[in-house]
Amino acid sequence: MARSAAEVSDRHGDATLTGISQLDFRRLIENTADGVLVVSLLGTVLYANPAAAAIFGCPVADLVHIPLGRPVISGETMEITVHRPDRAPADVEMRTVELSWDGKPALLASLRDVSAQRARQEHRRQSQKLEAIGRLAAGIVHDMNNLLAVFESGLRLLQKQLREDPANPNASMLIEELLKRTQNGGALTQQLLAFSRGQSLRPQTIDLNGRIEAMTMLLERTLGNGISINLELDPALGPVVVDANQLDVAILNLAVNAKDAMAGTGTLAIETSDTPGEIEEVPALAASFVRVTVSDTGCGMSKEIMTQVFEPFFTTKADGRGTGLGLSQVYGFIKQSGGHIRIESEVGEGTSIHLFLPRAPNTGNDPLRRQDETGLNTAPAMAHRIRRG
Ligand SMILES: Nc1ncnc2c1ncn2[C@@H]1O[C@H](COP(=O)(O)OP(=O)(O)OP(=O)(O)O)[C@@H](O)[C@H]1O
Ligand SMILES: [Mg+2]
Prior knowledge:
By secondary structure, the protein is an alpha+beta fold. It has helices spanning 22-31, 50-56, 60-63, 115-163, 169-195, 208-214, 216-223, 244-262, 303-306, 326-336, and strands spanning 35-40, 45-48, 77-82, 90-101, 104-113, 203-206, 227-232, 240-243, 266-273, 289-296, 340-346, 350-358, 384-386. The protein has three domains: 5-113, Beta-Lactamase, CATH 3.30.450.20; 117-195; 203-386, 2-Layer Sandwich (Heat Shock Protein 90), CATH 3.30.565.10. Residues 253, 256-257, 322, 326 line the site of magnesium ion (MG). It is an enzyme of class 2 (transferase).
């Protein structure tokens, strides 16, 4: 309970609230946006306002009398992580000052949930880092492409000359092998180009549901028998504007990652939704996007891995099993298309990757008006499940 105003004074005895009634004072504290706790010098909570209870994710009554769990030092501002029963942990800035409570020395802690601010800062830092890597990658791609062109034309010339000299079959085999390598190099530069946002996209208005349905055979073959595919396609989904081929590559990259994460058994879910939910980067513009989410029941990833997955060449896979360019392609494609991407993952539970794709302008949400310039079937899609033994 809040004490009377007369009792609230700081250590130096400044009675700054003289004249305010107990009721007014209580209203003030109970309605302030910051969390307020009074904590004994041993760290036990003596009073909590509703904002503090919201930060801790429990009723006020549950908070009072519990030990705060860490020593509280007067005069300090520190950042603590609050673990809550049913929600993600919160980053909380806590400032403490000494005060007298019930005639005994205690500490007044004011709490501010800075999770959203920290997440924005981290996001900004990641985007800047990825942009720098993107510029670097674009430079490498440019030089490497020139190099490959020289390499390839030289080899072809040599091949032509050797064809006229049948006495040398080994050289010709070697050249064949080298040509294959140049093609691999070409594919690599294409993926780097996709990441560095230098690729030329051909955005077109497409029916995302139709496009995903058209991929199911390919996905089934790619994922193998132990993995079932679950499609939940929103019949009200509006058309989007993206490069259809790059979208296919992105979905395939996500599916292959899911397959690796599930080690042969599990469920891959692809869900579309006309109502994308909140988009952190553009909260006010969320309605301009639709969402496609690719989820798996695989091994999940730690927070540390999650912050690196979009970097080109970042891989946790054994040598030769991954180049670390799959998610770079997805990221580059989404950003270049004007969309957004978000990862949710829990170690041991699975991963969901949300792609927010720009809605086609002036088409409204009427599924009957969906038109696909790629000529794919545009019949309204129904939520359905594909099960395989
Ligand atoms: N669905 C997922 N579940 C768990 N971890 C994932 C998932 N998707 C990606 N990762 C992690 O992100 C890393 C980077 O993924 P990315 O697709 O960019 O590269 P890769 O799969 O390792 O190689 P590549 O796709 O080039 O063959 C992976 O090595 C893996 O650690
Ligand atoms: Mg991959």
